[in-house]
Amino acid sequence: MRSYEVEEPIINKPFEEPEAYWYLCEDALPEKRQGRRPPIVYPPSEQREAWDLSDGTLRPSTEFPGGYELTLVSLIRERLAQWREQGYPGATRTTLDLLRYWRRNDREQRLFFAQLEAAEALIFLHEARHDLRQGIRVPPDEPGEERRADGYSGFRRLACKLATGGGKTTVMAMVAAWSILNKVADRQNKDYSDAILVVCPNLTIRSRLQEIDPRQGEASLYRTRDLVPPHLMPQLAQGKILITNWHVLERKSTQDSRVMRTGVRETRRETIHIGKENTTLRRKRYLTEETLRRQAALGLLHVLDEQRDATGNLKSASVESEVYLESDAALVNRVLGRDLGKKEKILVFCDEAHHAYRGRAVAGEEEGLLFDPEQEDEFY
Known about the structure:
Elements: E1 20-23, E2 31-34, E3 40-41, E4 58-60, E5 68-70, H1 71-85, H2 93-103, H3 113-127, H4 145-149, H5 168-185, E6 195-200, H6 203-208, H7 221-224, H8 233-236, E7 240-245, E8 253-254, H9 257-262, E9 264-274, E10 279-281, E11 284-287, H10 289-297, E12 302-308, E13 314-325, H11 328-341, E14 347-350, E15 356-358, E16 369-371
Parallel strand pairs: 6-7, 6-14, 9-11
Antiparallel strand pairs: 1-2, 3-5, 4-5, 8-13, 9-13, 10-11, 12-13, 15-16
Helix pairs in contact: 1-3, 3-5
């Protein structure tokens, strides 16, 4: 069996842009190549035929068999380097001060190249001179058909992917400082926000993320990682950062009479799967047969059809139920509270975003936000 081990796996310095990479390919010896490794993604084998290349953000790679190059990422890397070399044309005075502060030579705690590039990339897409952003279009995150019919519109979602240990919490603090300080410097500028919502998987991560709250003062990342000069901390403290778990974004349903008067009535059709316990897993809802019968008897749901296996055991049931969901205003008030609820523009950070995603709509069911069950412990 061929070995793909290399004698020197670490060939780049953490504070400098990668200059070489190991090229690994099946049935070939590892090869050390100069330059930076292209951004390549490998789709699951069963999905390769379904990948949509029409928006131009992907193209099959000739160098990496079976892989696709993220062409948008490659273009942003190229233009970002030009922006940096030209002295960040288009950046505000506040932004320039921060970028130079992060990159100054006398730093006791140097920032990783990956951290600097991630923060600079987000800022570049927002502030860089127009000609440098020519041809760069990040496709908006569009809502489903039903949500669009209800008046919901798309928004721009930007993602930074850092390896484990790369310091993404520090990147979040860098971007938070950039947005808040720019807003404080120019209150009339609607391109920035001093209100930031951070959503994450569970209590453990939420506790750790408290260090990006400016109210932590000297214990915050802005000082422990020297991201903001001491004299700017009072301005930074004018920003509001709310850190919560993404599970609270689910619209609550209840039979409480007070919510029924102000909530939104909705008729749902779904497939209930019969299991050993009552749970939800990978977008499938499971109930024991006893629970299903009890809820039907109480009028909480109406069974439309039942599916049984060859031996007659109940496997699933198509049901219809009426629920009262909290209104948009109630959801906003519950999640954002007084600090952020009245803000017109909010910057949202989604930490560990690969654990929360929108699933494909199933026939007869609306698409919805999914949560990784392994991350659902201790989120209250």
